[in-house]
């Protein structure tokens, strides 16, 4: 390559880095951090951030903890700005479609926003109550947005006679803990065998169940809520459980999991579905045939990407640090080419505060099929446990023992043997591996299948179809 050619290439690369129109759909943690990273790395072009909520990006973890306790108002959780982003903010208007042929985002108000490169950070929303008629009852809440948290905090402040929480994942368990801290009577209805069983398995779930019972929670496992009844004013008053029990309640919190916000991409021919938007390790979105796109990127809760530590399984990670690191990688790769692009391969981590215990974890615990207690005391709620799969450590969780988590994270990153090497001290009396007791993944779900369509090999294409 001659010097003049090299200079021309350098100028083109610099122009690609600095100019053009980038649109971020999702005024979220990932969206904000990506915008900041773009400016930090030298992007000088037009930047537009679209969000369906009227609020600027805010922090979600406090909503189920400090906000519900009344320590922090819901509108005081705005995320700090790490640097000016010099963006056009389109808040309070949802994206309803994507025209890839013309590089346009379609908005609910009929407007179209042009882009050269697009970043999708639309995240998730709370799964609504399954009965549309009952969903309109006053006193029935979900917790996902700051407005949700503000309404529930006001309801708890009025001291209801009994709160019913449907679902005992991390959010449901944290809300149950808040209710007990507020000295409110609370019942938790869980379809599974124990709280947290989907994320941490039955061994840890049994410990979480005991924590709830000791705190005075009326924990009901193996049951579902079949129906809700309201009074003449339309306020919820009773809940009918699948075991025939009828509960008198004033507040119901539906903690039924999340739905990824991908409906607006339905006609865009991207690889979207129940688990989000599929992308490569560089945050580039796949189209519906598995071909990587050049100008559409994904980050945050809505992204689903392969992970080298977990047999390249496509994974969605609804964790705070994943949103931040994914946003930074996506921003870098949107304005760089070739060898300057980076992979997004974070080691997942999570934390939860409930019933006086600080729970922290690393890796993907549910990928494992065995568990071993490695440090501390289960009875004292102060321990570390590791998860194994095919002879290697894949995850770890600590209860009030978080200072040791970096040690286990380093083992996971190295695919160290399972059981892991002894830490040197504070070993429990029983340090033998046992089945982790996760729910059977072969159970039927409502997740769509992927099918091949087309009457001949040259016209084959993939699409998602709901199961019959």
TrEMBL record:
It comes from the Bacteria. Keywords: FAD, Flavoprotein, Oxidoreductase. The keyword Flavoprotein applies. Its cofactor is FAD. Residues 350-419 form the Reductase C-terminal domain. This is FAD-dependent oxidoreductase. PANTHER family: APOPTOSIS-INDUCING FACTOR 1 (PTHR43557), RIESKE DOMAIN-CONTAINING PROTEIN-RELATED (PTHR43557:SF2). Residues 21-324 form the FAD/NAD(P)-binding domain. Residues 419-468 are annotated as: Disordered. Pfam families: Pyr_redox_2, Reductase_C.
